Amino acid sequence: MSSILTNSSAMNALSTLRSVNNNLSETQNRISTGMKVNSAKDNASYFSISTTMKSEGGMNKAVNEGLTLTKNSISTARLGAETMVDLSQQFVDRLAFAQTEGVDQADVQKELTSLAAQMATAINQSSFNGENLISAAGAGAKDVVSGVSRSGAALSTTKISFTSTDLEAVQTSFAAVAIDNTTTAADLELALTNAEGFLSAVTDAATDLGIAEKQVETQQTFLSELGDRLDVGVGSMVDADMEQEAARLQSLQVQQQLSTQSLSIANQAPQNILSLFR
């Protein structure tokens, strides 16, 4: 039955055209943004997961940036400690030389005083951004946040722990060594033994700082690679497949043209009824 009041063919054609236009708009949006999940309405599950992962990635990147400051502080302190190791070794060598019969102990003492002064200079200059890890004020046990981990809804931080040594106290011990031409052989030997112990303490301090610096560098490398993995994981969920979307766009454009023609034909159907009354 044909009706001039209700054109079911036109209604069906219009419904199809609206559906095609909606799909076309969605595809064009994906192509323009490069994303298939822009909001929770696109895919609530993927949106929630990707948002959480982006948050974790952002926190780890922030921690990584903070570790750069820590690494620079440790690296600067390590340089100072290694410089002090060299000076300490020279100090021990001069004391060993002082054990020789006939050596002018007063001249050796001048060298020792100069070396102790250089140690103090190295310590004072081993500061980065106002932090000196081998000074009396900056030395001690340190805990550095190295990352953020998630277990369910709970967040926790991981840490790198290390200990820096107060080399100012060691330098004071070196500076306290005093010899002259009246110093006995036993006292010279004792001074050498003590200096060797001071050298061992400085070497241990430099070693600890080197280990800590390596830990921080390794963690930074891990955080960088972890950030890349998280970005890839998020992208696999929310990024649009551009090849697929391009093919879909062409298909929808053809469907849009056909739906428009179908609607036009359906709208002409009532006109055909007029021929029955001629």
UniProtKB/TrEMBL annotation:
GO molecular function: structural molecule activity
GO cellular component, as recorded: bacterial-type flagellum; extracellular region
Residue ranges occupied by any Flagellin N-terminal domain in the UniProt entry: 4-136
Function: Flagellin is the subunit protein which polymerizes to form the filaments of bacterial flagella.
Gene3D superfamilies: f41 fragment of flagellin, N-terminal domain
Protein name: Flagellin
Main location group: secreted
Entry keyword set: Bacterial flagellum, Cell projection, Cilium, Flagellum, Secreted
Flagellin C-terminal domain span: 194-277
Lineage top rank: taxon: Bacteria
Family from the record: Belongs to the bacterial flagellin family.
Pfam family, one: Flagellin_N
Subcellular location: Secreted; Bacterial flagellum
Keyword Iron-sulfur tagged: no
